[in-house]
Amino acid sequence: MAPIPYRPDIDGLRAIAVLLVIGFHAFPDLFPGGFVGVDIFFVISGFLITSILLLDSQGSGIQILRFYAKRILRIFPALILVLGSCIVFGWYTLLGDEYMQLGKHIFSGALFVSNLTLWFESNYFDNASVTKPLLHLWSLGIEEQFYIVWPFALAMCVRRNLPTTKWLGAVILVSLAYSCVLVFQNPTAGFYSPLSRAWELLAGAMLANFQHTKSRFVFMLSRPFLAWIGFALVAVSVVVLRASDRFPGALAVPAVLGTTLLIAANPAGSLNARILSNSWMAGLGKISYPLYLWHWPLLSFATIILSGTPAWYVRLALVLASFVLALLTYQLLEKPVRTLPRKLSIGLLLGCMVVLALLGRNILDREGLADIRLKSMVALGPDAQHDFVDWEKSGLITEASCEIPFQFPGRSYCVKKHPALAPTAVVLGDSHAFHAYWGLAEVLDETGDNLIGIGRGACVPFLDYAQGDDSDQCQPHINHMIAYAADNPEIKKVFLIFRGRYLPNSASPASVRQFHDGLERTLVRLLDAGKLVYYFLPVVETGFEPRFCLGNLPFGRRAPQSCELSRSADAFHSVLLRKEAMAVLTQHPGVHVIDPNDFLCSGDSCPVVRAGHSMFKDENHLSYPGSLYLAHALQSAIND
């Protein structure tokens, strides 16, 4: 590929661009329009790439494969290092959903489609965006998509001797018009779409084409005063624009035009030679790419860890750290890689990028690998660790044989307070019943009742009730459990307990009728058998890992959720279930209806931690201490 003359003033312009972006991300109040730094990068990229391709066309013609090899050597090394570092650092700091999101962005970043992924997630300026460590890769995605299309289009124009200037002008106008419309119809699409950004890169391409054809416009644009006008246009954009503006569209024109004028200016002119070509500015421009890659993950991870915007001095320290990392990346990675044999270096870089893409996809598909990482992330004391044991694996379960087991898919357990004695009470339901068993067994034992736990995980304890195709085989097992409880004369009390999410508020009328009739059949069967029936309404759920309320997260990170649950907010998820259940229960006044939240909550507040112990084992199940606490709190209600 033919070389083009080195212009230190363009590296200086790169320095301005990256400083503006960093300023906007770290200190948005001081640089409200600093995001136009990305638009400056776009114009520079379009100019340099097109200049290289056109100069190359004068020799042996545009060599597209050689062009892509050059791009790989330029782009891949620093990007691979940053993506790999985010994977490692995220492993020790991010929660399940956060790490899963990072995996998705690693995958899309490695494939250079981050802009398309983010397009369907949120607006670039949304508050949620600050917790995406790879948000800034959207611009790299647009550039790479441009690099895929533009060399072929330009090669076709050159080969067929088409009027490149006219074609470029037409495409620029269409893309700009599309951007102007899209920022009002769909601002997020207007920001991330490569079609609405193409005109910015093509503006630089047009300038390169003017220079290549020695158009008279080049001489007009190179006048010294136009460089100062260009500088003023960029400066005004930085000062005037705000994140809330409809951008890019027409509002990006001043920054794009200003950048074009600065590049078109005579490199020996006062502005370009004295300011942009300054050795410090040019040196900063050389590391602008790794600097751009490093600064945002540092700021984003700090925001996640601190659960809010870091103090100004923390942001300043992180910005300085990004400069150090960028310099080390440039000196110790980028430059050495370019000295290796080209085929070897390109093969290694492609291989590493494929591995990163696969890792990202694996993290996404495995939901952030939370189960694997959580125990090492959250430091718990010995007492707190006991709150989160898997009871079915811990030895808390009575191992002696019993006549009927509680089933989970793939395994069964015998849970009875006194294995040698006949049961006089049963708790029947799903895994929520299983975890409520421990407290109820202890409390009932005080009045001489021997409790047994029966049922099946993920199954509603209703007679002849099956969800969908009953792939969990709920119906035959639950029918057998209900028959066991109803037909056993020794059993006097039956507790129906299950999770309150089985009938969502959006359930169809057929599902509502099925639930209503299933509960009615079950109550009639048990009451006719002379059983004293207790129906438990749904227990409040945390919706997050309760370990965070007791343990210490890495780097002093605060728990991202409140450890005081809202009873009213939780009840919203089971409005329909509660309504239909009460419609049936009011027809059977002999059934004791118990709302566990009357005992777990005070007013609207339901604390996750009581007396130093978590009331919950995971996102929705009671812990062992929680089971004991609830049972003792409602002791008078069940021992009447």
From TrEMBL:
GO terms for molecular function: acyltransferase activity, transferring groups other than amino-acyl groups. Residues 9-330 form the Acyltransferase domain. InterPro entries: Acyl_transf_3_dom, Acyltransferase_3, SGNH. One of its GO terms (cellular component) is membrane. One of its GO terms (biological process) is lipopolysaccharide biosynthetic process. It comes from the Bacteria. Residues 402-634 form the SGNH domain. The chain crosses the membrane at residues 34-55, 75-94, 135-155, 167-185, 217-241, 247-268, 312-333, 345-364. PANTHER family: ACETYLTRANSFERASE, ACYL_TRANSF_3 DOMAIN-CONTAINING PROTEIN. Coiled coil: none annotated. This is Acyltransferase. Keywords: Acyltransferase, Membrane, Transferase, Transmembrane, Transmembrane helix.
